[in-house]
Each structure stands twice: as structure tokens, then as C-alpha cells.
Design brief:
about 15% strand, alpha/beta, 9 helices, Arginase, Chain A, binds manganese (II) ion, 8-stranded parallel beta sheet
């Protein structure tokens, strides 16, 4: 058996099995189940134990609703039963868990049911004082706001929220949360923007874009290298978010929002190598895997 390459490092795998603030699957999505399947012992933990000696798993599945611990007993501040209240308490728990892992010198890798949990990931890197960038892999820009959204779907707004363009009071309720300005963001993928059945909002995205026209011009490696080198002139630390639907459906149909023209697994893997060569990676989240496809 080959020696493990990263025995000096320790990983904390974090599962946050929620979508739209709930663990219950519904008629549209079963992404809330994804983190539990991916962090089952024979899945991600087994794969990571081939690389690292020390891998622990933390499942956050008791953050269903606000409690008196969140509100001091004044539930007017955070109403029980409200989706946004639930998402907020889940992000607060995720931020604390990511930060605890980082403070213990461990690498936090999270499997999250929903892209909005990226807000908690950002809160969890509060120990880093230097400027931070964000590299967002996704078939979608997730760059809507309450003003542009036709349906209010909060999962369409995480990048804009992190970039400081909406939900100003709400995002700051997550301890440690910081805005990451648009010029510190790289968005990779965006396949729905060019799909035949693209929704109108699929044209919205923030930051430097590594998408079809740029990839056609420079090749995938050239396109992402240019974006990373530019980002590297402004920061040396990054948070990486990977919506699993960035993959082309022929590789993995991660969820019902996956779109043709996505990345290959080799491209995502190569991108991560190029990122690691240039930046300190603070935390990684994998989102929106729907076991039901
Ligand atoms: Mn997506």
C-alpha cells in the first residue's frame, strides 16, 4: 500500500443536511439528503482516509429551528417556522463548526445541502485577517437579489449576498461573516447561461467569469489561470465553493438544475490544483448534490 501523502494534515468533514432550511425532502429536491450520503463512512471519509491519517466527521442535524439560545427567548427576533430564520441558525452553527476546525489546525471540508450555506462557510474563516477571495464553481451564477428574483428563491442569491449586494443586516447576523468584494470573486462554469433552455436569470453572475466564451478563447487551463493570477494579485487566501452541478450531466447529473455544457471532473480537479499552487485554501464546500438526481 502506498504511503498516505498528507499525514501531517487533519481534515474535518462537516455535513449540513438542509435545503431551504429543512431536512425533509420534497417534490422538487432531495438535496437535503446529499450531505448524509456523501459523508457516510464508505463515501467521502473512506476516500479521504486514503490521503490523510486523521479524518473526523461532524453532522449538524439538530439546527432545525431557532431556539432560545439564538434569541434570548425573544422569538420576535427570529420567528420559529420561518425559512430565513432556519437558514440563519443553520449558517450560524456551520460558521462555528468551520471556525472550530480551523482553530484546531484542521482543514474544514463541508458537504452542504444548499448553496446558501456558503454564508456560514464564510463566517467560519473569521480567524483570517488577510484579504480573502472566493472561487465559486457552479452551473449558475447565484447572483440574483430580492429585487431581481421573480420567485424569491434564496438559493439564487448567495454570491450577491457574500459580495455585499443584498441582505445587509441578515448576513451580518452570522458571526464572523465578512463581505468578499466582487473583484475578489471568480465564478467558474455557468453552463446554464449557454444552455438551450436557460432561464432568463441564468445570465447573471459576479466577479471574473470562467465560462464558455472565455474557455473557447483561451482553453480551460488558460482561462482559469488568467483569472487566478489576477485574483492572486489581490489576495493569497481563498474559500472554495463547488456546487456539484458545475459538472456536465454526462459526468454526474448532480441535481435537476444541472445544465449541458458543464465541466468535466478532470477540469474541476485541474482547477483545484491550480488554485492550490497559488493560494492558501481556507475551507471548501461541496453543495447541492441530490441523490435522486
Ligand atoms: Mn447551481
Amino acid at each position: 500500500m502506498l504511503p498516505k501523502p498528507y499525514t501531517d494534515d487533519a481534515v474535518t468533514l462537516i455535513a449540513l443536511p438542509y435545503l431551504m432550511g429543512t431536512r425533509a425532502p420534497n417534490a422538487s429536491y432531495q438535496m437535503a439528503r446529499g450531505p448524509l450520503e456523501l459523508t457516510a463512512p464508505d463515501a467521502a471519509p473512506a476516500a479521504l482516509l486514503k490521503l490523510f491519517d486523521d479524518v473526523d466527521v461532524i453532522i449538524i442535524d439538530d439546527a432545525d429551528e431557532p431556539t432560545a439560545a439564538n434569541t434570548g427567548g425573544d422569538y420576535r427576533l427570529l420567528p420559529v417556522g420561518d425559512q430565513m430564520s432556519r437558514i440563519l441558525v443553520q449558517n450560524i452553527r456551520l460558521a462555528a463548526t468551520v471556525l472550530e476546525a480551523r482553530r484546531a489546525g484542521r482543514i474544514p471540508i463541508a458537504s452542504i445541502g444548499a448553496c446558501s450555506a456558503s454564508l456560514g462557510m464564510v463566517g467560519g474563516i473569521a480567524d483570517v485577517e488577510d484579504e480573502v477571495g472566493m472561487i465559486w464553481f457552479d452551473a449558475h451564477g447565484d447572483a440574483q437579489t430580492p429585487d431581481t428574483s421573480e420567485n424569491g428563491f434564496f438559493e439564487g442569491m448567495p454570491v450577491t449576498t457574500i459580495a455585499g449586494k443584498c441582505w445587509p443586516k441578515y448576513r451580518r447576523k452570522i458571526p464572523g461573516f465578512r463581505e468578499i468584494p466582487e473583484d475578489h470573486i471568480v465564478t467558474v462554469g455557468l453552463s446554464e447561461m449557454f444552455a438551450h433552455n436557460a432561464r432568463p436569470a441564468a445570465s447573471m453572475a459576479l466577479g471574473a467569469l470562467v465560462h464558455k466564451p472565455v474557455i473557447e478563447k483561451f482553453g480551460f487551463e488558460g482561462a482559469i489561470t488568467r483569472a487566478l493570477d489576477d485574483l492572486g494579485s489581490r489576495c493569497k487566501h481563498v474559500f472554495i465553493h463547488i456546487d456539484t452541478d458545475v459538472l456536465d450531466p454526462s459526468i454526474l447529473k448532480a441535481n435537476t438544475h444541472a445544465a449541458v455544457g458543464g465541466l468535466t471532473d478532470k477540469q474541476v480537479s485541474r482547477a483545484l490544483t491550480l488554485i492550490a499552487e497559488r493560494f492558501e485554501i481556507l475551507a471548501v464546500s461541496f453543495a447541492s448534490f441530490d441523490p435522486a438526481g
